[in-house]
Batch of 4 targets.
Target 1
Amino acid sequence: MLFKNVLWIALGGGLGSVLRYLAHKWISSATTNPFPLGTLLVNVIGCLLIGIFFALSLRQNYLSTELKLFLMTGLCGGFTTFSAFTLEGMNLINEQRLLVFFLYFSCSIVLGLAATFAGYLLAR
């Protein structure tokens, strides 16, 4: 049982990581703005998705345990990236771009929470 659960998470995480890479590259190539828009949008989209999946998981028998592990722990966990978020924050601090740093972190937290809540409401 544990191996099967780990396999579902690994499959979802691998897919989420590849999708994050592709989305980040696509978003970054579409803008020349020094603001880390790619990671911000990927994280907000991931929050929206996990809100939808969470709401669906609350419905009785709507998502199996395996599908929850694949979608929420794997896909969303691989798609969103807290480590890249904090690394970009450190780079902004090192570059002494404190206004952009505070704007980026504020937007990430507020928009991420709002997107999770919106996803939950959409799928409820």
Target 2
Amino acid sequence: MNRFKIDFTTLPWQQGRSGVRFKVYCEGKRQLRLVEFSTSDGADDWCEFSHIGYVLKGNLSIDCNGNVHAFKTGDGIFLPAGHDSRHRAVAIEPGTLLVMVEDL
């Protein structure tokens, strides 16, 4: 792999929570994740980390501190860090695929 191209086909799938798997590339203090959902179940726990992403395929709804937002294929996602921006997925279309850029 050269430093300008990430070939996700060569990266192994890793298991997240049940029904969620991902491939990850880390560089310095950032990572790029390809995330695939085979479940419609949302997350039980709230997250306070920042996420920037893009919905490659599918649909999901994210509860951002009490306000639910729907995202579909082609939508960008920007979730700021912090307690006031805590978030969790509440509904996911199985087969949804995201690309996420995250600080480590």
Target 3
Amino acid sequence: MTRVMAVGVFDLLHAGHLHYMEQAKSLGEYLVVVVAHDDTVRKRKHEPVTGQDLRRRMVEGLKPVDEAVIGNPPDVPIFDILPAVKPDIIALGYDQEHAEERIRKSLEDRNLGHIKVVRVEGLSDDLDGTRKIIARILELSSTRKSQ
């Protein structure tokens, strides 16, 4: 059985997230999604709108997802979760700012070169990201206020 691992924040679930999960699941039979720890989100992106436990529950409720786990806090190396997840493939979202070659090299350095790294296709929709959705809501709100 091919185990696929996908990673992300998944704050305010949207169609782009679902598409990512569908693409990741198509790479194997079992999909484990690592939902970013709240402290990691704060350090690398922004204050999360929804907490890690709710984000994990929401992601786990998506049909393509077999299991969802909360990732390590930022003070723990990101690769430390791999022994628990045991992926054969790491699926990266089209817009995730991960350097695939750097990840492959890090896997090789840890004797985990058997794990493949695959970037999945994006969704061709203008509202495929949380920030885009928030910007659209704010735009609509300001338009309605000025009418």
Target 4
Amino acid sequence: MERDNYDLIALLQKVPTATVSLQLSDLNAFSRRLIAQTREEYEREITGRLESRNEVYLSSDAVKQTLKISNTTLWRWAKAGMLVPVMVGGQKRYRQSDIDKLVELRP
């Protein structure tokens, strides 16, 4: 079989009892592709859920500008659990509602 012309998932669905011999590099490539596809599906699902809510998500730069803090402070707050980022479409974002809570707590 040519490397680019086979799909292990399709083979599994057609012949689930088949015995297959393949190189570790092929298995590695397959697992990376499967992980990437799963991640894309998960991010689409999460993004769809997020869009259905009225939550606003800000970039790191927007948060730093809004709160007038440095990279180091933002990193320390994330590490301490005070302002935890979420992944939206593969990018780190911060919930506006979490930022609003922080602003209320600040003197």
